[in-house]
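Structure, all six chains, one model.
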Amino acid sequence: MKIITQLMKSSSRGVFLKPVLKPLLLGSARSMSADVTSKYNFETLKVTQPKEFVTQVEMNRPKKLNAMNKAFWSEMRTCFQQLNSDSDCRVIVLSGAGKVFTAGLDLTDLDTVAVMQSDLDPSRKAFMIRGTIADYQETFTVIEKCTKPVIAAIHNACIGGGIDMTSACDIRYATQDSFFQIKEVDIGLAADVGTLQRFPKIVGNDSLVRELIYTARRFHSDEAKEMGFVSRIFPDKESMLTGAMDIAEIIASKSPVAVQGSKVSLVFSRDHSVREGLEHVAVWNQGMLQSEDVMKAVMAGMEKKTPKFSKL
Amino acid sequence: MKIITQLMKSSSRGVFLKPVLKPLLLGSARSMSADVTSKYNFETLKVTQPKEFVTQVEMNRPKKLNAMNKAFWSEMRTCFQQLNSDSDCRVIVLSGAGKVFTAGLDLTDLDTVAVMQSDLDPSRKAFMIRGTIADYQETFTVIEKCTKPVIAAIHNACIGGGIDMTSACDIRYATQDSFFQIKEVDIGLAADVGTLQRFPKIVGNDSLVRELIYTARRFHSDEAKEMGFVSRIFPDKESMLTGAMDIAEIIASKSPVAVQGSKVSLVFSRDHSVREGLEHVAVWNQGMLQSEDVMKAVMAGMEKKTPKFSKL
Amino acid sequence: MKIITQLMKSSSRGVFLKPVLKPLLLGSARSMSADVTSKYNFETLKVTQPKEFVTQVEMNRPKKLNAMNKAFWSEMRTCFQQLNSDSDCRVIVLSGAGKVFTAGLDLTDLDTVAVMQSDLDPSRKAFMIRGTIADYQETFTVIEKCTKPVIAAIHNACIGGGIDMTSACDIRYATQDSFFQIKEVDIGLAADVGTLQRFPKIVGNDSLVRELIYTARRFHSDEAKEMGFVSRIFPDKESMLTGAMDIAEIIASKSPVAVQGSKVSLVFSRDHSVREGLEHVAVWNQGMLQSEDVMKAVMAGMEKKTPKFSKL
Amino acid sequence: MKIITQLMKSSSRGVFLKPVLKPLLLGSARSMSADVTSKYNFETLKVTQPKEFVTQVEMNRPKKLNAMNKAFWSEMRTCFQQLNSDSDCRVIVLSGAGKVFTAGLDLTDLDTVAVMQSDLDPSRKAFMIRGTIADYQETFTVIEKCTKPVIAAIHNACIGGGIDMTSACDIRYATQDSFFQIKEVDIGLAADVGTLQRFPKIVGNDSLVRELIYTARRFHSDEAKEMGFVSRIFPDKESMLTGAMDIAEIIASKSPVAVQGSKVSLVFSRDHSVREGLEHVAVWNQGMLQSEDVMKAVMAGMEKKTPKFSKL
Amino acid sequence: MKIITQLMKSSSRGVFLKPVLKPLLLGSARSMSADVTSKYNFETLKVTQPKEFVTQVEMNRPKKLNAMNKAFWSEMRTCFQQLNSDSDCRVIVLSGAGKVFTAGLDLTDLDTVAVMQSDLDPSRKAFMIRGTIADYQETFTVIEKCTKPVIAAIHNACIGGGIDMTSACDIRYATQDSFFQIKEVDIGLAADVGTLQRFPKIVGNDSLVRELIYTARRFHSDEAKEMGFVSRIFPDKESMLTGAMDIAEIIASKSPVAVQGSKVSLVFSRDHSVREGLEHVAVWNQGMLQSEDVMKAVMAGMEKKTPKFSKL
Amino acid sequence: MKIITQLMKSSSRGVFLKPVLKPLLLGSARSMSADVTSKYNFETLKVTQPKEFVTQVEMNRPKKLNAMNKAFWSEMRTCFQQLNSDSDCRVIVLSGAGKVFTAGLDLTDLDTVAVMQSDLDPSRKAFMIRGTIADYQETFTVIEKCTKPVIAAIHNACIGGGIDMTSACDIRYATQDSFFQIKEVDIGLAADVGTLQRFPKIVGNDSLVRELIYTARRFHSDEAKEMGFVSRIFPDKESMLTGAMDIAEIIASKSPVAVQGSKVSLVFSRDHSVREGLEHVAVWNQGMLQSEDVMKAVMAGMEKKTPKFSKL
């Protein structure tokens, strides 16, 4: 007891609190006016803010068919971690520049292949490989950890890693001409960055899921819609992006406390029993129901006005 | 060892068993002839027995659009706990009186709002709020704990708490004109009485689930059917209730030991691994396969007769 | 959207909040001055408040060796549910009146035995028996659900149900002359109200645990201490109660938000992985660190004073 | 330390390794040329190898409508355990000989019924019954434990145990005239060999699942397709078997390391959280990515050739 | 419906039940009189029945220090599976013939080593190795699955696999001169047949557990007792076997329904949350409380006689 | 298929593998010769390599009693992440410079306090606080994620965060004069960086655990040893460091594949059922048993030499 209290004597309440708080709170204020592109400066991703509180993340290696190279695996992670604490962002639309959404893993740019081919002792290789897999898994898990809803807007090819990635998104829209391929068995491996874990929990036809995984055959937008992998089909990329932005705008207009709490609870509940999910959301809401957003939303509802929510 | 045996000396087997047993067994016998409405006397619910072993629970505040007020949250819990041990009830049909199924939470009648608005210390508010949420959660969890199948018969509006409630039912039927709304983000909060836990485990289109939750938009009977939330659409309320009663009657004619064991196992298995679910049903059936119902059912099958099962 | 907003029109914010809030907050205020004995009026339990915020619950059928009869199973549940929301109670000491702590289950007063002996169909008996077991389990689980620490003060015999009950307590103290017996196999059954679940997770010698359970042999205070079931031995009942009260008083002087949050997290974490336990306490504390108690405690520490915490 | 090293002195590295290895490796080599029918000699099953690496298992009691008798429950287990380690088998097609796929449990040939009817003490019956249930459950769980994909090709009736069995398969195809019935409540029991555990996790319409289970009503191929239980409908048995063989051939042409790793991960991930599933596949692939199949597959892809994979 | 009933017509109730039942029930009757040694005929194990209902399993390769060779891994599994359904066995004492309890894995007799050394593709080796590990794990898991309590009586060396094996037993006794060694890191591997899973859940000093595992140092009987791995120390092997037999005899005199139900619940509860453990034992006891043993035990208790329980 | 193969055409196998591999493998080679202190340059930590493969991490703010400030929370994380992939490190000894091990949280240097005191909306505060807690939790979880064993060498005061930190270590040694305090309730909060999750799973006396947590009283080295929190007591800091280094040296001499695999399995198994732990270690070892270390270790054992293992 003595030790702690001695440590504290030298500082009075007023002194140590104020200076710390200021930059902390200003920080988020300043971020509002900052230019989104300068904040998010990536080689493989283009980040823009087409509407208030709506961020678009575009995979941006069109000449390489947005294949996932080493820079991508690292930048995606950084990008979504940053978006997670950016109060100007409430919803994210994830799309691909150029002709296709993504061709998946860029096999020309992988350390793992080098490790696999080396003469190292198998157990030492294994430690290295596990490290890389864990890193790549985290790249897509950050999409899920990011508390803001992520809408994948898919056109043309969505292959291999593209399925892993979009399975970690909240909502999937696609163009009429889009097609999908769970490619991994074709390159001699079991998918290991999320498809086998998330894809079957998203759709309602396990028989089809397994056929697609074991055969690596293509499936098209209509089959994807019927099985519940995507929820809307649009005639082309442009109309899809418009549609995605419209939904994004609606979500962005809601209380971010409510929307992000919903995502946290949905992700938690998918992986736990109903009872555990209920306990979790009760503990979550014991704090969150004290939000000013509840009263703002209720009042606005009564007055038939659109509420404006503070940044989060 | 001594203590227990001494306690017992004073009573002989014959003496202490008989008197206890009689009222216990008569109790369930008497309940058979009792008038169901007098047994189930509620302000917000109307309970009737349209067919043998079939109970109808009707939300009964039509002028308030069956909005869920404090009395409702408490009465539902009591009602289903009572039905759970009522041997005259084998199936429950849950419907709404008046124009709509339910408008959801009655915001005009909530203690929680008062707590939220008070000047209490945030941690003390949190303890209070958690208590209330836990109580409300229990109100719908009793539907699931009740071992008898519950059929929700939904017409017109089913909003907010209505989704939480019907997600805890076994079977959902709806009228052509019905519509649904996961309303919670519109009042500034993450749904906390079951929708986020149960709804996504019921249907097979997670992309759509999340769109509906984040946007709070309405969806209609056909979309509800397509996504697997309801399994039958009827032209109107009357035909739906007839249809629900017909199915209820069929279920009521089956062995209650078999049907209720199936529900217990289904609910358990949803929340556990397949292996755990198998172990559970094996332990359950090691006792239940000794039921007279098995031989009754098999014999009736061979003789092409309809078996009659004892009360449970 | 319309429906909810229409419902709300008729009430303005000021109107519906105020009247609800008043009794709610007064309620907890009034409970402070109320006489504890009149609030807790039981046949088998005596409830007193020996010190501020410290409640003593005494099993009170000394002539029957505090054997657990039907009234006890019901009253314990009610008592601890009530204590859980009583802001005058921060710690509970659970003891037994008379010569022994408890002789365990009162076999002369059990419906279950009657059911077992009846001619009912085995599956129908099973449904009845499961109901009773679940009720009895809940009687001790409420000790764990009650967020206030419970100290068991054990003297002389602690048999059968006594082990189940004290295993659900937080802290166990015992007198030198105390002895314990996991009696259940001696009456032909596997213990089913908590010993087999909680006891092995409390102590650190599974080999001994199983010997005690399979043989139903007595073990004494020193063995109980050595294996980690009790943490302190006192010469006699009087000194033990004094010791228990002293510890209870210390706990009662701490922030109830901190102490009760700790219990909630301990119970949760015992049953979950470390990772899940960490996530749970993070969600818990995101609200609870906003408590006034934190600053009160820190300030008091710096000023070397004893903080006074508001009721919870 | 001494003890082990002494044990080892007597054998030098070269000596003890070689002789052991030879038969072990030859063993799998020899199995290649062996006649599949002589290896798999069963009373109730006919096992053939219509294509390289494709095994067909046909239930073969057409006069008894392929009803599941005692021999069947035992032979299925043996058959799939054997197939699991047969390197000539990479995919399995499971079908039924004669007019129907299967009529389910053969009630005329069951020990359990005898046990149920006996005068044994209920607890002793329970131990016996649990043993039998566990055995029967294992009969279908081996389909899931077998790392090779299993395609069920269903025609006409698929009743009772047929649902339990096909729910444990990976892919389900059916003929236009096929119908299904979760029969168990009609014989007075809750299904206990897998339907209640696996069926609801396969499809995306829980409302319909429960209706089918509680009513035991038949459902037909189109309803089965719509709810996601089967993924393809064929006009008749012949075209279905051709279709199933075509898919089987495609799967058999892929890397068995990749396909079987995918099945292992899919089954594991169904029963665990996404995070746990990801950790599992990372540990799995830390070894498996060292497979020669990866480079073979990648090289073949680049050269637009079909790779040939070694036996597994 | 038709199909099943047609199947049944040809057999009447009386006909199909009787003949099946007889051998089934006689089977267990006959086993009683059979000579235990002829029933349990093993190369590496000696099985005797020193007292009624008490079976002794002795590892019996004294010249090889009871090292675990291929025959052992297979015979242990068979032996305990057989004991599990042998109604003459209610408790098992597991001991070692000769100078030591066991030297652990017999490295001179292992296929795995051959596989490890071969030129096979690493992924194909991995499939083979996993099969062997799974088999060896099952060898000790059967000790746990066997519902009868198993007492390990350890003298002198208990090394490597000996720790894995005894960690799967219920109770561990040891001689004063016994010593233990978690040997695996010394042969270059992480223990994989149970020590890392079971050992830390048995004792109450995780710091010591990890020191022992990482250093592979010996620890002696007193340290084993202090940390809670063994619960009794005896001066020598003879006195230990006498002590173990005495405890075994006591356990054998109790209701086997009660004792074996306790073991099932203990094993289940170790691996589940308290809540799940409680639900499991409630479902278990809903059938088991109908046992004649309950009344026999209670009556015997009242009359201060020793009850005699039927075989199980 | 086309897309991927096209991507690959431009690179031949030899070309893309070699250049990538070289720096990767050289990287780990170079790290060997690098000066450890220059690699690990921290403000609050001093990192040295007293023996080959043994790293010492010393908390290094002696004037501040090694209180945990913002820099510390960040540097610890970085330090252990770096050590995790440093092949020169096989074991870590964690100690404190100066008079005490650590005084715990540095309350004078915390953003969280500022946030707590601000006027922000409670739900927005909650999001911020949760972020900070999660970061701090990760600081100690990295100790557990680091696959190398960590030995805590504790002298004098180990308070608050010190308990959280050492509970995440593998082995705990302490000096005679050391004392411990689970301080958190004294500053008004439930411990939230690991104590409530890990501490009770380490020791075998839950009654004492809860007394210490609820009262925040100090406990001394002997009580810590008796309850199993520390496993060795040394007379003073110097002898303790010598003792810790000796054990560290022994561990460092073992196969790192074996030791680190053991840690991974121990941590996994603590949080899963025995069955899941066994499956996990089987999948782990299917790759790791192919390690050269196994044969090296076995050969060295037979030849009574000390094996030398390659870097990992």
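The CA atoms of residues 214 and 264 of chain E lie 32 Å apart.
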